[in-house]
Amino acid sequence: MKKEKSVKNVISTVSNFFVFFLLAAFVTTCCIMLFVSTLQESIGREFTESEIALAAKITMVNVVMISLAMAAVDYIRRKLTVERPVKRITEATAKMMEGDFSVRIAPTSRVGADDGFNEIIECINKMAEELSGVETLRTDFIVNVSHEMKTPLAVMQNYGTLLQDMSLPEEKRMEYAKAITEASRRLADMMTNVLKLNRLQNQQIYPNPTTFDLGEQLCESLLQYESTWERKNIALDTDIAENVLVCADAELLLLVWNNLFSNAFKFTEEGGRVTLSLTADEEYATVRISDTGCGMTAEVGAHIFEKFYQGDTSRATQGNGLGLALVKRVVDIMEGEIGVESAVGVGTTFTVRIRRNNHGLEETR
User: Fold this and answer.
1) Between the CA of residue 49 and those of 46, 55, 223, what are the distances in Å?
2) CATH of the domain spanning 142-201
3) What is the pTM of this model?
4) Which of 233, 294, 244 is nearest to 267 (CA)?
5) d(CA 154, CA 145)
6) Of 267, 270, 274, the residue nearest 293 (C-alpha)
7) How many Å apart are CA 337 and CA 351, to the nearest integer?
8) Superfamily designation of domain 210-355
9) Where are the domains of the chain?
10) pLDDT digit string, tens, across residues 265-308
């Protein structure tokens, strides 16, 4: 490869020399002919053949020297302003192809250089930065998924080993079997959420908007947790405006409400309170879901929409840190807004604003 490149460089240098030679010869010949013609008319004498031959030889030498000088200058110029930045760019892109996204290219000198190279370098540096971020996210995602899978798998393995004891009482056997079932359910839920989140992030799930009553959907979602609020003796307050029609994907929005209600009841202690309100104006429908749970710090609140993030590790066995990431992605797809207000020991309020008539989604009935 290097040998072929060297041969190409030699051919390029020689060809450039002949181009400069022909150019210099043409320009010099024209100038000499004009000079001789003018000189003969001025002094009134004809030059002899020997004088013309001597002048031609001197001119030929000058043409060769000028051509060599021009070729040398052009060679140095190309080395400094073209080949050097091209080499740096190709070396950097070769490293990126090998998976090294930490490489960055320094801008070329502005003096005598083509500014187009700096534009290319800037674009490549931005691309490397983006690829580095994507690679970090991919690595973190794999690490987090692996970590989250270990716990339920370890539970199933340990309890499965205990179940092999023939002398195990029936009560313990049922307890261990239930633990295995719960761990397998958690693992299945995590895989389902991972697939959903991946499809949402890659825009493989396209919204199917229909017009429906948002208040009715909220009530249907809330009723799924009736056994939970009765078991924990949680007071429930609702203030739902009537006839709030929205044009959105009902199935995706149901995913939002189910996750928010699940969190509200999960983090609210016995005897606590969960509040649901729905208000609307001409453009937006606003849903607020509040609880009197443990609350969270501002630092935790800044990360709750990140994948696998769990602020309360004491309840990590009840989830996998993907629910709020799904919620955020769905709200973004709906071109809505979501915010959170929380205080430790007081509770948490999630506020979701959804466009009632989303012009970015084509309505299908």
Assistant:
1) 9, 10, 115
2) 1.10.287
3) 0.51
4) 294
5) 14
6) 267
7) 8
8) Histidine kinase-like ATPase, C-terminal domain (3.30.565.10)
9) 2-100, 142-201, 210-355
10) 988 989 999 999 999 988 899 999 999 988 887 777 666 776 55
